[in-house]
Design brief:
Strand content: 5-15%
Helix content: 10-25%
Order of helices and strands: HEEH
Strand order of the largest sheet: 1-2
Length: 101
């Protein structure tokens, strides 16, 4: 009998596309010491110039749990049709390309 793997909220799939694997490698490489994630000011989209327009950087708030767009990629904003900088995810219309089907 195979044991089921415990689901972790927001876990990363085992197999990633080449582009997403590059982003993850970059992210992991920015961590300092025992930090579980990089400091916000270490992230530089110019380090991945061919992917920068597709990247999204969000600020996460704990209580209440909310997500604010800090740096939505130009491709996302263009496809969405609105400026998302500073917007909270729960205050915008959820439509393509943010709509998960």
């Amino acid at each position: 009998m195979r044991m089921k793997r415990a689901l972790v909220p927001y876990s990363v799939p085992r197999k990633l596309s080449t582009a997403l694997a590059r982003v993850r490698g970059y992210w992991e490489g920015l961590k300092r010491g025992d930090a579980s994630m990089p400091f916000w000011d270490d992230v530089d989209p110019a380090a991945l110039p061919d992917l920068a327009a597709q990247l999204i950087l969000m600020k996460v708030f704990e209580r209440p749990r909310r997500f604010r767009f800090v740096m939505p990629g130009k491709d996302l904003e263009q496809r969405y049709g609105a400026d998302l900088v500073g917007a909270f995810s729960d205050e915008i219309d959820i439509r393509h390309p943010l709509l998960l089907v």
